[in-house]
């Protein structure tokens, strides 16, 4: 629990609150869309909408999220020192800050009107006021709907863009992002037309435009004064924040400038209080940062040159991220979190390639992306003895045939050969599939490797003293994929605990005298039965806790086990 709290940042709190509010917006928009059927359908839908969102526990969560999200948005305006990252980020902030001012009249008119005077404004009354009253009201509501939707969609995009499924889900999410607000606006329009037509009927007006539903002129004036006062107060709050930003900037300039040296001859001077990443952005210095400076990755890491004792202590979030990546060196810091108060020399640990600092997220899949992958590590047994008794070129030929047979099995089963290390290979599964499919593909690939090696052994039987043997380790989990290397010498690969564990499991097949070791994570995700393979508790180097694995004496059986698991699941 304490680790989870340490790893929670204000941005994550704002994200959770935003997701709650966006869920409300989706519910409200779908209710508006019922206007394409009839006003009666809108009224029936709003009954269930309000029954859920005004249920006391839900209402408490909702209003708490709304106030927290607004407060954190105002704080973000004060806290942010650099707005040139990407146009979409300041746009999201401006749209979010404009929503409270635009929605104030609607909330006061409906919710406070009901609380103070018992008004019963529902769709017929609101649509009548929008379409039969001042034209400004309908335009204000239309602008509010569009702004709220765009603001929410930007937030959802920033949240999901680094997720493994985003590439596949993006077309469907885009379709929903276009269709839902379009249907909502059309529903309001159709409902408004219907209400305006019905309002010519005196009986309809008698039943729907009563004092109990709309209130008196005096009550309306009171609600308008409350709305005006709160709006002025909110705008005044934003003015105070902008003034505070100006005061802070003035104090920082008077407090002196500091020099940041990048270790490559580049030096910039910035006011105290800026983070190292913000300084890079301000001066257009390329600086890797996949997550956009949100402390959700560690790609902006720097190593401080010289004395680091005068630096501010890492925040809880920074300490959490550095701990997650296994960094204990106090000279390594996150550039997005470190705000030096004195001159600083450092160098970046991750090469930003040729991307500028404000274009870092344009190709996240090549710089670094976190996603679930299944790693299959396979190694050829006895290659050293093989090389001792053969000419070098003959040994290379046999190893290449081995790696070719392994790669063919991997590709046939939807995987991607990734790294070749001597007579071993790392294959990745899940680059374009979901975790369950990736686990099943890896298990089938292991069975395919055995079959291809059998064919190779038969083909080379006249030249081999003993058949080629192999060991396989398979494990799945969250890894970082991206280009690793320097300048033109880069390769696309995966880094993370799951890859390391797969390599350890492959090496462990020697001591356990088996062809493959599969982690419990892969067995469970693939849907294999609990009794499908023998279970063992093993100790993995670099891990404190023992790990549950499945020992596979003959990998050829894995294909049949996967087929059986699929039939059971179906």
Strands, total number: 13
Query: How would you sum up the global shape?
Result: flat
Radius of gyration: 31 Å
Mean pLDDT over all positions: 83
Structural class call reads: alpha+beta
Strand content range: 15-25%
Output the number of helix runs.
Answer: 20
Helical content band: 55-70%
Quick one: biggest sheet? Answer: 8 strands, mixed
Distance between the termini: 37 Å
Q: List the domain count as a whole number.
A: 3
The low-confidence parts are 1-7, 353-365
General description of the model:
With 570 residues, the protein is α+β, with helices and mostly antiparallel strands. The protein has three domains: 2-247; 257-359, Ubiquitin-like (UB roll) (Roll); 368-569, Nucleotide cyclase, GGDEF domain (Alpha-Beta Plaits, 2-Layer Sandwich). The protein has helices spanning 2-6, 10-33, 39-53, 56-79, 88-117, 123-132, 135-160, 166-198, 202-208, 211-214, 217-254, 276-282, 316-324, 364-367, 383-388, 392-412, 435-459, 497-512, 520-526, 558-569, and strands at residues 257-261, 267-271, 301-304, 332-334, 344-348, 369-381, 416-421, 424-429, 469-486, 489-495, 516-519, 535-538, 547-552. Strand 1 and strand 2 (267-271) form a beta hairpin. It starts with a helix and ends with a helix.
């Amino acid at each position: 629990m304490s680790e989870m709290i340490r790893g929670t940042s204000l941005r994550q709190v704002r994200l959770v609150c935003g997701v709650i509010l966006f869920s409300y917006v989706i519910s409200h928009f779908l209710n508006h869309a019922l206007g394409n059927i009839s006003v009666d359908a809108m009224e029936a839908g709003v009954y269930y909408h309000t029954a859920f969102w005004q249920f006391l526990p839900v209402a408490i969560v909702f209003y708490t999220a709304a106030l927290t999200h607004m407060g954190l948005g105002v704080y973000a305006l004060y806290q942010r020192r650099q707005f040139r990252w990407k146009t979409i980020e300041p746009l999201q902030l401006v749209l979010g800050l404009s929503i409270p001012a635009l929605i104030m009249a609607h909330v006061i008119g409906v919710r406070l009107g009901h609380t103070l005077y018992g008004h019963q404004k529902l769709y017929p009354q609101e649509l009548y006021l929008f379409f039969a009253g001042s034209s400004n009201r309908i335009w204000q509501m239309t602008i509010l709907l569009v702004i709220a939707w765009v603001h929410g969609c930007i937030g959802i995009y920033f949240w999901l863009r680094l997720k493994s499924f985003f590439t596949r889900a993006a077309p469907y999410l885009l379709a929903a992002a276009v269709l839902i607000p379009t249907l909502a606006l059309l529903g309001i329009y159709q409902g408004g037309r219907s209400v305006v037509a019905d309002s010519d009927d005196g009986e309809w007006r008698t039943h729907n435009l009563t004092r109990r539903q709309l209130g008196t002129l005096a009550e309306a004036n009171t609600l308008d004064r409350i709305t005006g006062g709160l709006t002025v107060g909110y705008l005044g709050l934003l003015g105070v924040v902008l003034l505070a930003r100006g005061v802070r900037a003035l104090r920082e300039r008077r407090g002196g400038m500091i020099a940041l040296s990048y270790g490559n001859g580049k030096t910039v001077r910035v006011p105290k209080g800026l983070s190292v990443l913000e300084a890079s952005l301000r001066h257009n210095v390329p600086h890797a940062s996949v997550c956009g400076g949100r402390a959700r990755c560690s790609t902006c890491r720097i190593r401080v040159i010289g004395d680091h004792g005068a630096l501010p202590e890492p925040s809880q979030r920074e300490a959490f991220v550095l701990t997650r990546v296994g960094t204990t060196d106090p000279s390594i810091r996150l550039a997005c979190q470190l705000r030096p108060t004195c001159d600083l020399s450092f160098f970046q640990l991750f090469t930003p390639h040729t991307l500028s600092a404000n274009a870092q997220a344009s190709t996240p899949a090549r710089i670094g992306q976190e996603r679930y992958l299944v790693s299959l590590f396979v190694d050829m047994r006895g290659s050293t003895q093989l090389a001792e008794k053969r000419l070098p070129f003959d040994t290379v030929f046999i190893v290449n045939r081995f790696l070719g047979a392994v790669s063919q099995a991997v590709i046939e089963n939807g995987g991607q050969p990734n790294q070749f290390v001597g007579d071993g290979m790392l294959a990745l599964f899940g680059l374009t599939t979901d975790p369950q499919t990736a686990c099943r593909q890896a298990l089938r690939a292991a069975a395919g490797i055995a079959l291809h090696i059998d064919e190779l052994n038969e083909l080379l039987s006249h030249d081999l003293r003993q058949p080629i043997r192999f060991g396989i380790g398979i494990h799945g989990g969250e890894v970082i994929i991206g280009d690793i290397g320097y300048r033109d010498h880069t390769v696309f690969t995966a880094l993370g605990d799951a890859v390391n564990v797969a390599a350890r499991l492959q090496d462990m097949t020697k001591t356990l005298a088996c062809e493959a070791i599969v982690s419990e994570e892969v067995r469970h995700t693939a849907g294999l039965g609990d009794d499908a393979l023998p279970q063992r508790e093993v100790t993995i180097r670099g891990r404190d806790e023992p790990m549950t694995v499945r020992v596979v004496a003959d990998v050829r059986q894995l294909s049949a086990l996967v087929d059986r698991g699929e039939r059971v699941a179906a």
